[in-house]
Amino acid sequence: MTTESHTHEACAVTSERKSHHSEKTKNNLISRLNRIEGQIRGVKGLIEKDTYCDDVLNQISSIQSALNGVGRLLLEHHMKSCVVERLQEGDDDVITELLTTMNKLMK
After folding, report:
1. Do 83 and 31 touch, CB atoms closer than 8 A?
2. DSSP character for 92?
3. pLDDT at position 85 over 90
4. 11 found inside a domain
5. 20, 27, 43, 85: which has the fewest C-beta neighbours closer than 10 Å?
6. Least confident range of 12-16, 40-44, 51-55, 86-90
7. Which domain holds residue 47?
8. pLDDT (tens digit per residue) in 18-67
């Protein structure tokens, strides 16, 4: 993955922090989420059609894997931008925040 330029003004330490993804990254994330959304609708349809449970469970596993991919991509970009920036500003609280988030992702 290539390093992408970011505008760092959006990572200010406020209650209304914002990400600063490049358009390429944002489009990638939205595309992945659109596919996942379609997969979820597909699972709903499978359940409505009384599809064999194992087939539905395999589709759910695929969705979970896709969501994990979105999470990994977001985590990577967060660490390379906001986390680095906040550490450079002397804000060590970002490490606790990051660890809490990572624990949630790994459940």
Report:
1. no
2. T
3. yes
4. no
5. 27
6. 12-16
7. 21-105
8. 777 789 999 999 999 999 999 999 999 999 999 999 999 999 999 999 99
Residue 74 domain-assigned (yes or no): yes
Would you tell me how many other CB atoms lie within 10 Å of the CB of residue 40?
15
Tokens 């596919």 identify what position?
A: 35
**Which two three-digit tokens encode residue 88?**
């450079």
Distances from the Cα of 8 to the Cαs of 64, 66, 73, in angstroms?
31, 28, 19
We report the CATH number of the domain holding residue 57 as 1.20.58.1000
The radius of gyration of the chain from alpha carbons, rounded to an integer in Å, stands at 18
Task: Assess whether pLDDT exceeds 70 at residue 11.
Answer: no
- So what's the pLDDT on residue 2? 40
Identify which of 84, 97, 102, 98 has the alpha carbon closest to the alpha carbon of residue 8.
84
